[in-house]
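Need tokens for this chain, all 494 residues.
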Amino acid sequence: MKLNLNGLGFFISNCKYLLLFSPLLLVCMALGSKTLHAEGKNDGMLIVGCWHRWQLATIISPPACAPVPFKSVSFKTMQLFAFGINHKTAPLAVREQVAFNVEAMESALRDLVGHGAAKEATILSTCNRTEVYCSTHDPVQAINWLATYHKLPANNIEPYIYTMPQEQAVQHAFRVASGLDSMVLGEPQILGQMKQAVRYAEQAGTLGFLLHKLFQRTFSVAKDVRTQTEIGANLTSMAAAAVKLAERIFPSIADQRVLFIGAGEMIELNAVHFAAKSPKQITVANRTLERAQALARRINGHAITLHELPDQLAQHDIIVTCTASQLPILGKGMVERALKMRKHRPLFIVDLAVPRDVEAEVAELRDVFLYTVDDLAEAVRDGLDARQGAVKEAEVIINSGVSEFMHWMESREVVPTIRALRDVAERQRRNEMEKALRHLAKGEPVEKVLELLSNALTNKFLHAPTQALNQAQASERDAILETIHRLYQLHLSE
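Here are the structure tokens for all 494 residues:
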């Protein structure tokens, strides 16, 4: 009889996970939600032995996530974690101490990861929040890094920090991107700010697989919220609120001169709103004249540099400032001189920067009406009631997205075990195949070789569950029996 080794090899290759291997592949997933108590065991895992020995050990599910003080949080493996402060937990005076300069963002990210505080990291730093999303096994080290980087004692910021492990971090990211956690409910700028934060992490090389997947899903959920709900309806923006406050001081903005300091997104938004009121004059001041000129052309204004501010300040009635400067742009002395030149005519200032562009002492001066980001909170509440119904709809979309993402994360946790199972099975298959080929080379009948091969594979694959049942303690035997019955679809009554 002619020996068809190609056909036999094809059979062996394609039956390598036949018999009992597929059900065994599910053992780790099925037991992941079951608690099997074994004396002296605190942690659970599926131990995959060498060719001849598989052993099932205790598997204990982690407790449900709950908000906890950051000092009590610790992970044995890298896990998703978020922490930060925002306008709800900390005043402006605290928030500005932990704000990140845009120009230093990438170096800060590399410093965080480089010191081992996190494996992956993204920093979201805006006027209203500083948040770190990371993959870490030591949250305390990550939070301490935040204080150390800003040269602050840890206890200075500890009372204001919120921490969110795993599922809570996912839900928080979705809510933030959707505008549900913003000072202005439903405001769209935060989504762009979060996308920019992700770009910084990409450029810094700190955006790994987990965070990349998280933010991909975050932006998708945020898009669904904004297109499927009315969360952005009847929206009073910071810019609109600033205009309303100015109109309380001046009867007509059309008779006033307006100065914008900075040329970023927030200034652009304010410039558009104020320009719609046709002020007498518009000036844009910026560190780089080119950017100031680009914005000035769009709103029919003229541009100056920051060095010209001392001479130009007194000529303006309304000042809106928002720069990335780590030091104040307008000091008390400069404003005092401007007031004298104005003969104490009212000066309206809106400081939207974090850290602040205007020294806090300026608020003490007569004839100065100074408003910060936090001061605008009340003004932006208009239309809030009309958006409350949309919040409930948005939460449904977010919760669904969280469930899907957590399912994906949980499935990723078993990948190393699945890979190990496949590796063990593949080694067993190759070992038995080599034996079969040697028998065939000796001229033994194909039918006999196939019989030996199938029996050997059956014994190999059955060895682990059989041994686990034989060696199981009384306290764990019922659970193992239940799992094996489920995986192998055993119906003893039949």
